[in-house]
Design a protein that fits this description.
- This protein is an alpha/beta fold and about 190 residues long.
- It is about 50% helix and about 15% strand.
- It has a 4-stranded mixed beta sheet with strand order 1-2-4-3, sandwiched between helices.
- The longest helix is centred in the C-terminal third of the chain and has 41 residues, at about 130-170.
- The protein is elongated and about 80 Å long.
């Protein structure tokens, strides 16, 4: 799966983590590993321009998704036997998301993960214009995001345990391989 990210927002964020969240969501949705996705982080001004131009709505927003025109609209890319596809672009606005993160009581990166998953689902044809669509999309978004957070927490826990183990082995003098024993019958 090819995921390109460009940060033109002026806000320093963990871009690798955002790509990881997108990849996790695409994997969970069983999108072809040959699919391509672009993620762009922009300023408030750029997002405002995009929001007004494409949605005819005033002011900036947090996330916009631009599916590629060549996708077969009768068949979502997460359908069985999906062919390779250019999924499209997700545009995130970290400056806008900062306020949302603060209101929600979590870190900016957590908000950007949520918005990334949201954008992926939009690219795959999900919407929230109608109440039934909203329930489906937000339930799926919540599940994917929760599973992603659990997976990251498990990796962090494993890495912390490895670091502890390495430290203990170092204190015990077991962190380096033992000197090679000379072959039988030879003296050192």
């Amino acid at each position: 799966m090819s995921i390109e990210i460009a940060n033109e927002s002026g806000v320093v964020v963990d871009e690798t983590s955002i790509v990881s969240a997108a990849r996790y969501a695409l994997d969970k949705m069983e999108v072809s590993p040959l699919a391509e996705l672009s993620i762009l982080l922009v300023t408030l001004e750029v997002m405002e321009d995009l929001h007004e131009r494409w949605m005819d709505l005033p002011g900036p927003t947090d996330v916009m998704a631009f599916p590629m025109d060549e996708l077969d609209s009768s068949r979502r890319p997460d359908a069985p036997d999906a062919s390779p596809a250019l999924l499209g672009d997700i545009v995130l606005c970290p400056a806008f998301a900062k306020d949302q993160a603060k209101t929600a009581g979590h870190a900016l990166i957590d908000e950007l993960h949520l918005l990334t998953v949201h954008g992926v689902l939009h690219l795959l044809g999900y919407d929230h214009a109608e109440p039934a669509e909203e329930r489906e999309m937000f339930a799926l978004q919540k599940r994917i995001l929760g599973e992603y957070q659990d997976a990251v927490a498990a990796l962090d826990k494993r890495d912390a345990q490895r670091n502890t183990d390495d430290r203990v082995l170092g204190i015990a003098g077991l962190d380096t391989p033992a000197a090679a024993e000379p072959p039988a019958g030879e003296t050192p």
